[in-house]
Design a protein that fits this description.
This protein is mostly helical and 203 residues long. It is 72% helix and 0% strand. The longest helix is centred in the middle third of the chain and has 31 residues, at 65-95.
Amino acid sequence: MIRKTTVTEALTKVLEDKHWMRRTLLGGLLLGIPVLCFFAKGYMMQVLRAAILGEKGAKLPEWRAGESFVLGAKAFVVWIAYYILPALFFWLASLNRGNAAFGTFLTIGIVLAIVATVLLPWGAAIWLSTGCVKSAFDVRRLVKVFGFLGEYLDVFVRCFLLAVFSVGTLFTAFFAATACMRLFGEVAGRYLKQEGEESLEAV
């Protein structure tokens, strides 16, 4: 039976990197600055990709400015695309306040937003494993999450709770996000390998 990594272990892994404080402070600082936040988001994608690849050891990926920015920009595009449909229904709901259609549009928007939020880490993992951003929207691949849905939701809930409790500063948020990327990457990478996905490669 495969042993699951706990949230505590994921956080400890981050702390074991000798440059964890420098990287966390830099990531937290960049996370709060428009456009420059792409560097921080891209670094999270580097961490996720390293976990998917199954890279062992406590060392975190090196900050590579160019790669981090490109990955962050791509991650932003994926994020926007995932939430376009929920946003559309929320907009329709706002246009129908006081009408019978308001509740319908609002409910659909909420459901779609939840689905998008849950699927987003898996979509990012698929993209990083194939090197193709379009694969993050490949329904054929996305539905494969049902093959390990219980384990995936377990990690999602644990990461969601960690994110809630880390709210306070951008530094703690970035630190928690780094640990969550490791957890998601570990689960997604194991399943992607079992499924015989295309070779895991750098973006």
